Automatic annotation (TrEMBL):
Listed name of the protein: Uncharacterized protein
Domain of life, per lineage: Bacteria
Organism: Arthrobacter ginsengisoli
């Protein structure tokens, strides 16, 4: 499931965290919320996986979230 599909399904708190901490490693509760609405699957284009600092979204997902945060039309995803 790609970000444009799961974004409206996660709760406002999770979306708020993702906007406020865009590009940072994801804490366990944010990952849990995303996995709960995606059925445990994510689109590899949007999910970068683990870095040395922890699980992260891809650069494309970070850009997508930034566009949403700026009330811009995000790239298709």
């Amino acid at each position: 499931m790609n970000i444009s599909e799961w974004w409206p399904l996660v709760d406002a708190e999770t979306r708020g965290w993702l906007i406020e901490h865009n590009g940072e490693p994801l804490p366990p509760q944010v990952i849990a919320h995303i996995m709960a609405v995606t059925g445990g699957t994510t689109d590899s284009e949007w999910w970068a996986g683990k870095s040395a600092d922890g699980p992260q979204l891809s650069d494309e997902a970070v850009d997508w979230i930034e566009a949403v945060a700026n009330d811009e039309e995000p790239a298709a995803g």
